[in-house]
Amino acid sequence: MKTNATQPRFSVLLLMFLLGSFGMVKGQELFPVRGFCIAAPGTAQLSTFIRFIDEELASRKVNTLVLRVDFNYQFKSRSELSEIGALSKKDVQKIVEVCKKHGIRVIPQINLLGHQSWANKTGNLLKIYPEFDETPHVKIPEKYEWPNADGLYCKSYCPLHPDVHKVVFAMVDEICDVFEADAFHAGMDEVFYIGDDKCPRCSGRDKAELFANEVNKISNHLSLKKRQLWIWGDRLLDGKVTGLGAWEASMNNTHRAVDLIDKGVMICDWHYERPDQTAVYFAMKGLSVITCPWRKPDNAVAQAKDLVNSRKQATPELKSRLQGMMQTVWSGADSFLDEFYGKKVASAESESACFRALFAEINNNQMPKP
């Protein structure tokens, strides 16, 4: 019987392909969410940002882009809140198009509840609607310093004001529509002002219930259009018991809200100075969670290894909730792009260095093992 001389070689190639495919599937299973979070770019850097998605996010198999939009969009529903020079609908459609090309899920973010001011600048929501302010008696100083007598970090809106959701939900719906999004990120991190003693609506109320009710109100609104709510997880951790403190966890008793919020909410669990392992805590509470590093490459790699080990050793129920990782960028899109493309020097501990290290580690787990 005559044999085909190419058959063994073909079989080896096929086996290599199948092993490679298995390794890729296996790696992707370990990191169902491979995310990147950054502020929406300015119009001047839009083309560079689209190039970054097309070449850098796609090549690293990033499948989720959380884009912090806030007021950097030309809202039709609430035009009074848009920043000058904000992104147009056509600009957003360009971002959506390149993400669709690579199968990247886009999730827009507008900070809700907290982060309604920064340093000596009041955000557009409270600037236009000062009646929504949870602490109107706390004045924004000309020169901001921390710590300060008022405990002012960022302002919050009052979650019980009867008109606040008419305004913010109009923006949420519009931004989700324009991004064709099936999820929305509401921020909700570092909420220091909640249930203030001088608020005529919130005074005396349980802060955990106030926080949980706001989360659930947003989640319920999104669910009407089959959209998922994402939030940062710090307010759901006990800063005293864990020793995590007031920034990466709560010192004002909102942590009990972890047992009160909708279990369909995605938790973005950020730890930047140490690779603290709190993702399993959220999973054990019945919540899906992703781990989020920032600018320390060694921490990001350690967090990725921890996630791999946790998923390998977890029960099927817990494993399904440990959803992956997301690199966060807080310097702004323009600054990050300049750093990434070498227009300014990046230190060993920088956002771009962390991004490169994290996805090198993630994709190392996607390669077939010899």
Automatic annotation (TrEMBL):
GO molecular function: beta-N-acetylhexosaminidase activity
Any single GO BP term: glycosaminoglycan metabolic process
Chemical reaction(s) catalysed: Hydrolysis of terminal non-reducing N-acetyl-D-hexosamine residues in N-acetyl-beta-D-hexosaminides
Coiled coil start-end: none
Record: active site: E190
UniProt entry keywords in alphabetical sequence: Hydrolase
Domain Glycoside hydrolase family 20 catalytic: 78-293
UniProt xrefs under InterPro entries: Beta_hexosaminidase_sua/sub, GH, Glyco_hydro_20_cat
EC numbers for this chain: 3.2.1.52
Gene Ontology cellular component annotations, sorted alphabetically: membrane
Pfam families assigned to the protein according to its UniProt record, in alphabetical order: Glyco_hydro_20
Superkingdom assignment: Bacteria
Family recorded in the similarity comment: Belongs to the glycosyl hydrolase 20 family.
Protein's name according to its UniProt entry: beta-N-acetylhexosaminidase
Species of provenance: Pedobacter hiemivivus
